[in-house]
Design goal:
The complex is a heterodimer of chains A (about 210) and B (about 210). Chain A is mostly helical. Chain A has one domain. Chain B is an alpha+beta fold and about 210 residues long. Chain B is extended, with a radius of gyration of 23 Å. The chains are: A mainly alpha (about 210), B alpha+beta (about 210). The interface between A and B is medium-sized, with 29 and 24 residues.
Chain lengths: ~210, ~210
């Protein structure tokens, strides 16, 4: 598979939120506004790309310096090693964000540290990066990250528009519009993600 | 045995490298984060006490103890700020302090400014994570018309007057978010209760004057 296809796959065919249905907690919680969605999407993308790259590099290194038997035994601690690497990048994101983008870091709150346990990231490390070489792993990270960002944004744009009459924080519907509050509350996220999943499944069925 | 050693070495190396990287980055970002926090506090202080030129923090020593009750060290904590109108720290115009209240779904932090007689000058909500569209309206600081909640309605209020309308007071609460309104009002009130005697303003005299 070409690198470009690897990236595209993450955006549509294997979109983490809509197709793999992974990482729904941040997807539901942080799609209340476009700025939250973009901030969270990019933070997750950074962690995905870096952890995918380092993990595939590490696996490559071990396959060079260790015997077959050694590799097998190392396999036992792969999950703790992955988690340490992922946590390291998440803390980097957290520190940089609160130092340079304090407003964004405040509105994302607890969800930045929670990227550590985001199943998309560990899922890609385990399912892709540990079985592929460095460059495809980076491409996969970019694709999955963009797919996650796109999913968040597609939810956020509708929720922000209906729920507060704003697009990217600018009031577009005027002061007379009475916001559909339920859209920025948790139920709105469930309604919308249900509708999206339904549409995507219907499109798939029609193709067949 | 060889196996366990191998696992240990791999785990140690990965952890050590991560720790080193994070320690380096921490020393770079730490001062920046401190500055950002300070800037936010300063901005709020300026807003609640517009006449102030110089702000002097008044600190209290908070003892930090270990599990057995032995004193480890004393930590300085800011209890309030004294505000002066002139740059040589003369002409006291008021005080500023923070209050924290338990809202509907979050802790609400508020910065409050009072003048030297104990009347509130301005308040600003520093942080809250209340229900979007209801409790979040507590940050509204538009001109107060007497019908809708605005943080401006606290202007000129004294200790005695801090009570929301649902409890028979004068503070107009947010429609659909009485708990939030009450949390903010009561947190200011209880903070004033402990702080006014410390500053040396009598609460009773304060009520009589108004």
């Amino acid at each position: 598979m070409s690198l470009f296809a690897e990236v595209i796959k993450g955006v549509y065919k294997e979109n983490p939120a809509f197709r793999l249905v992974l990482g729904l907690c941040p997807t539901l919680a942080l799609s209340t506004s476009m700025s939250n969605a973009i901030g969270m999407g990019l933070a997750a993308t950074f962690v995905l790309v870096c952890s995918n790259a380092i993990i595939s590099l590490l696996i490559l290194l071990f396959s060079k310096i260790l015997s077959e038997e050694g590799q097998k035994s190392i396999n036992k601690i792969r999950i703790p090693v992955f988690i340490v690497i992922i946590a390291c990048f998440v803390i980097i994101v957290e520190m940089v964000m609160s130092a340079y983008f304090p407003a964004l870091s405040e509105s994302l709150g607890i969800f930045i540290p929670l990227i550590v346990v985001n199943c998309i990231i560990l899922g890609r490390a385990e399912g892709f990066a540990s079985k592929n070489s460095v460059i495809p792993s980076i491409a996969d990270g970019i694709g999955m990250g963009l797919g996650f960002t796109a999913a968040l944004c597609s939810l956020a744009i509708v929720r922000e528009f209906l729920g507060s009459g704003k697009v990217l924080g600018n009031l577009v519907l005027g002061a007379g519009y009475k916001p559909m509050l339920i859209m920025i509350l948790p139920p709105g996220a469930f309604f919308l993600i249900g509708i999206y999943l339904g549409i995507l499944n219907w499109l798939d069925l029609r193709k067949k | 045995m060889k196996n366990i050693l191998r696992l240990g070495i791999v785990m140690t190396i990965v952890s050590l490298l991560s720790a080193f990287l994070l320690a380096e980055l921490y020393s770079i970002t730490k001062p920046k984060i401190e500055i950002q926090k300070m800037a936010k506090t300063m901005e709020a202080l300026k807003l609640v006490l517009p006449d102030a030129k110089v702000l002097v923090p008044v600190t209290k020593k908070i003892p930090v103890k270990d599990g057995e009750g032995n004193l480890l060290f004393e930590k300085d904590e800011i209890i309030y700020y004294q505000a002066y109108a002139k740059e040589d720290s003369s002409q006291l115009v008021g005080y500023a302090f923070k209050s924290v209240g338990n809202g509907y779904s979050s802790l609400i932090e508020t910065m409050i400014g009072i003048d030297s007689a104990g009347q509130i000058t301005r308040i600003k909500i520093l942080s809250q994570k209340e229900t979007p569209g209801l409790g979040t309206l507590s940050e509204d600081s538009e001109k107060f018309t007497g019908k809708k909640w605005s943080t401006q309605q606290f202007e000129g209020k004294t200790y005695e007057q801090l009570k929301v309308d649902k409890d028979g007071g004068e503070i107009v609460s947010i429609t659909g978010a009485t708990i939030t309104s009450r949390a903010i009002t009561n947190s200011i009130k209880s903070k004033l209760e402990t702080l006014l005697p410390q500053i040396g303003i009598s609460r009773d005299k304060n009520a009589e004057v108004n």
